[in-house]
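[stage:ingest] chain + small molecule (protoporphyrin IX containing FE)
[stage:ingest] validated
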Amino acid sequence: MASSIMDAQLPFSLDKYHVSEEYGFVLPAPLAELPPYYQPWMDIARHVTELIHSHTLRSHIHQMPELDASFLQNHRELRLAHLVLSVTTMGYVWQEGENGTVKVLPRNLAVPLWAVSQRLGLPPILTHADGVLANWRKRVPEGPFDMENLELLVTLPGGDSVRGFFMVTLLVELAAVSGIKAIPDVINGVRRGDTETVTRALEDIAEAISSMTEALRLMHTYVDPAVFYGIMRIYLSGWKDNPSMVEGLVYEGVQAEPMQFSGGSAAQSSLLHCFDELLGVTHEPHSGAFLTRMRDYMPPAHKQLIQDISSGPSLRRFVLGQDSAPLAAAFQRCVSRLLDLRSYHINVVSRFITVPAARARQLRSRGEAGQEDTLSKAPTALEERGTGGSGIMSFLKTIRDRTKEVSLPPSDTGS
Ligand code: HEM
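[stage:predict] done
[stage:export] tokens:
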């Protein structure tokens, strides 16, 4: 377990936080196969989409043997097991759509998913750490890390758009790596009072945040909004604050009472949590509580990194106290780039949720259900709500506005 950076005055480093030099928070070279004993899990997970379409996934899962998860030996095996069991769980719960949900996850799925989750410190549901960070391989191993050469290990209904959604998000994670790697230089530089090092590191971070926005643009090329809204979204949704599953879900063989967990969202990515803590962004209580809860959906070492950044020295206070125009400009560039990213993300959400939701309502109210089938049959329960159950746009705008508040006074940036 990583210890607090405040424990020792050793230089701050990323070594103990499971952050890779090359891939950041992304799991390097995820395993694609489990040991042969677990073949029944892999067989179902690889065919989740077809089994959902034929309405036979649930019956296949009922016939699945109850396997003992304790033979899984290392982190990569556990991550693959969590991915396949959680994808299978999403399929099981949502196979019949929002009106045909279940109250109980059968024990042959619930017990091993719970056991693997306990060992990893992740919740027993599909998370960003599964679908994005641990769900990729290169088609040509020595080929480039780009959309053409990347594929998913397991998928859900939605065809190419599912690959697009997870892989573009993966590229956003990778675009941020140089920025994450610059964080120790900022913290150590502030401790030493080394203005130049901090300035350079902040320039790298601003650059990385710009690259994240560039990568996010690919969403429009690789994901069809109607497919995202009408087909995929339900498989990413959870059983907390969800009108289709008000009580939550009983994990049979684990606990008699139902439990509630949020669905997968890039709000569970550690990237913006790290940058917010570094720059000193503090969120309004409602959105702050949601974002803080999302940290429980991250690998524990990544969550620890965020906490340790937050208990480090105040960067903003340092910048204000230094009387260095280049330093102030670099800090302000980070804030501006983060604002640009959040504004662009709001556009993405509008295109992939708000606009299709309005069109779906229109089709239904005019009784034009036969047209634009994918949209008119879209689930209704999540229409106005984020996976966290909040009014999406006001939630995201509040977060963006709080980001703006860490801007430096114009006199400090020379503007
Ligand atoms: C089609 C693409 C996307 C859609 C429709 C989408 C939708 C949403 C929604 C509805 C929320 C509100 C919270 C929730 O319901 O979970 C959210 C939050 C968030 N999303 Fe996305 N998102 C998309 C792609 C991405 C990508 C690629 C990233 C980058 C890693 C990202 C990063 C975030 C972050 C960090 C939050 C928390 C709010 C914030 O810190 O500003 N999203 N997103």
